[in-house]
Design brief:
Strand content: 25-35%
Low-confidence stretches: none
CATH architecture of the largest domain: 3-Layer(aba) Sandwich
CATH class of the largest domain: Alpha Beta
Number of domains: 2
Shape: globular
Length: 369
């Protein structure tokens, strides 16, 4: 049967793991152990099998095991539909991250064509109450899961915007410089807008068509300056018209970099930031599951799910419902928790690994299920 899963994962000098290896069979993966044992490090390693900086958004040099700082390596055998790929990502000491797929050098974007990976980490529990930047990252991660080229559009836009902001702060008046940068921002900004809108449409459809124990969230995009321009030409006009005002502010005031993501608990009509902690967690899980359902339609298989400390704020009933939905979806989910009892409702439907730590070094042991 076609599917998407990590079949084997090896770590070398990765965070607290000098060496580690997991042999996997495609079932959900329950990883348990004490706080600080190194559970999340395993999920971070899996997240680096996708484009970007992983679930911790760490720079390459931050990942290397200390105090050696020799560099690090993650190797994986990834089943992607009908094919199996050998994937390696690594960073030597003082060097940037590199990727190899089936023995050949590859771009990070190429990882997105092999595996789709989505995640939920404890830091996201504050998503609805923190600043807009965190919600934009969440939105762009969802969008990237549907469109692997979205990350390049965001990087292009941000690079050009930083240069434009520098010109504004230095009070440069040459219109040709602005026009060149604004053209780049306009093309990339229009792509960002289209990609985000399509992603939200897919999430809405996936929520509407599902029977789930988790509450649906109605998502909308807002911008402090009103509706964004539509299309590259409209962006060019808006950037040119806003130069004087932007110059006074010392930064670009209109664009996709200021978009915010708003959510409402659909059944109650309550804004997410006004919901209880448990409801906010349930809304996040609902969005991750909707993302997975939509990706399964697009990609031909559900994505790999990374759910760090997923049991937090969930009672036993909701935990059991989550495991049922993951299994019904057919997704390989990597889940962490402090004790094996948190995964009792998963039963033999998943693999279990215990992670222990001794004097700063983590060890991984599989348990019988």
């Amino acid at each position: 049967m076609p599917g998407l899963s990590v079949q084997e994962l090896s770590l070398s000098h990765f965070r607290s793991h000098i060496a580690g290896r997991l042999v996997l069979d495609g079932r959900p993966v329950a990883i348990f152990g004490a706080n600080g044992a190194g559970k999340t490090n395993i999920l971070e390693a899996v997240s680096l099998l996708s484009p970007g900086r992983g679930l911790r958004r760490a720079a390459a040099e931050e990942i290397s095991r200390r105090p050696e700082a020799l560099g690090w390596k993650v190797s994986a055998q990834v089943k992607s539909l009908w094919q199996v790929h050998e994937v390696e990502t690594r960073a030597e000491a003082g060097a940037s991250r590199s990727v190899r797929i089936d023995g050949k050098a590859a771009s990070q974007a190429a990882l997105g064509r092999i595996a789709r990976i989505v995640w939920l980490v404890p830091a996201m529990d504050r998503l609805w109450t923190e600043a807009a930047e965190g919600r934009r990252r969440f939105l762009d991660r969802i969008t990237l899961s549907f469109e692997p080229g979205h990350g390049e559009a965001v990087l292009t836009y941000e690079k050009a915007m930083r240069e434009r902001n520098r010109l504004l702060k230095e009070e440069v008046t040459d219109p040709a410089w602005y026009a060149a940068l604004e053209g780049q921002m306009a093309e990339a900004g229009a792509r960002i807008g289209v990609n985000r809108a399509l992603a939200l449409g897919r999430i809405a459809a996936a929520q509407a068509g599902a029977e789930t124990a988790f509450p649906a969230a109605a998502l909308t995009l807002t911008h402090p300056e009103g509706p964004l321009p539509e299309g590259a030409d409209a962006f060019v006009e808006a950037f040119a018209a806003g130069r004087r005002r932007d110059g006074a502010a010392g930064r670009t005031l209109v664009g996709p970099h200021r978009v915010d993501l708003a959510a409402v608990y659909s059944a109650k009509g309550v804004a997410a930031d006004q919901c209880s902690t448990g409801e906010q967690k349930a809304l996040l899980i609902s969005l991750v599951l909707a993302n997975a359902r939509a990706l399964a339609e697009d990609f031909g298989a559900p994505p790999i799910l990374l759910l760090d400390e997923v049991a937090a704020h969930l009672d036993a009933g909701r935990r059991a419902a989550l495991y049922d939905e993951i299994c019904a979806l057919g997704a390989q989910a990597f889940m962490t928790g402090t004790g094996p009892e948190l995964f009792d409702a998963l039963g033999t439907r998943g693999q279990r690994f215990e992670v222990t730590e001794n004097e700063g070094t983590s060890a991984i042991r599989e348990e019988e299920t």
